[in-house]
Design brief:
About 35% of the residues lie in helices and about 15% in strands. With about 200 residues, the chain is α/β, with parallel strands linked by helices.
Length: about 200
Amino acid sequence: MVGSLSQSAGSGERPIELIDPIDSAQREEVCAETARYVAKAGQLLDYEFPAVPVEFDLSGTTAGMFKVHGKRQWIRYNPWIFAKYYDENLRSTVPHEVAHYIVHHLYERRRVKPHGPEWQAVMAGFDADPGVTFDLDLSGVPQRRQRNYPYFCGCQTHAVSSTRHNRVQRGKASYQCATCHGDLVYLGDQGPVQYQLL
């Protein structure tokens, strides 16, 4: 089923047709392809790597992500981007994320660059393109939208992203205006604002 979402209400723009995420059969195929690359790395390196869990819970503009939290390791895929560019993601995103998993498993206690020579060597073993990003049209893919919060500096009002706003509220950061160098002060919850974004 394809839904629609208006980019900006009342702007006269046509609604965006939202695409559906990949179905269960395609998810199984992605999981099998992930396992195939893990097994291929094991053959290349003469090592038996444990299976890596796969989740299809990623959203936004990122197609895939290898995640580590404590002892837990897993790969996250974006089912909407896979739906739009299925073959491209099987060819590129799956080996890309599996290579991160393999490098983490091999060099867990050492610091290695995410797309450094170790990762590139695994990608070469997979005969996969070591490109880090792709430039594809993501219209129809649901996007995360950050809320903006109104802050004032003395010369103008600024729209501060929720990430920066939360840092200020926790006392972890403060921000200054690039024009007058005054400290930004939160104006309170006045809803969405349309001002200069920091």
